[in-house]
Amino acid sequence: MGKIDFPLPTETDEMLVIGAIFSEATTGANASDDEKRAIGLCVVNMAYYARMTTQNGKKCFNTTFGDGTIIKAIKTSVKGYDTPRWRLVMNGDILKTKVALEKDLDALETAVLKNVVSIAASVMKAALPAAGPGSKRAPLQFNQAANDPPSKREEKIFNLGSHTFYGFIAGRECQ
Which of 5, 72, 112, 168 is the most exposed place for a label (fewest CB within 10 A)? Predict the structure, then answer.
């Protein structure tokens, strides 16, 4: 079993981002910190764009990203939500306790979690909408297709790990 020798977050939204990254990111030899960061950024960017309004206050057409909360962004777009991998570190929508994590995770998974906790903390501090790693574009959604944007308003912006990431086509943020 792995020893949790690092601080765990207390904020629910940060815990949820940890669950999303941990459940979705590529594991093993192809694991990438940039991919983990991009997954986290997709979640916070979706919540941001779901709340976006026009200059005159009209709501944009981004309800497919949820209602502007992190949990709804995850529930609507993260396939790893509530999967066995999610449940390895999450108890429902809350990160497991230190005692439970030490019981459930081996040393390798504990090291992965430590990395994900660090990445999620940096994602939560990002100014929104946040650009992806090595990009000037904000990632919104991702999948494992070579190039199959979830919306006609989005286009492929980069690949990381086993995922393709998509962002708005310029000018389509509020159409």
Answer: 5
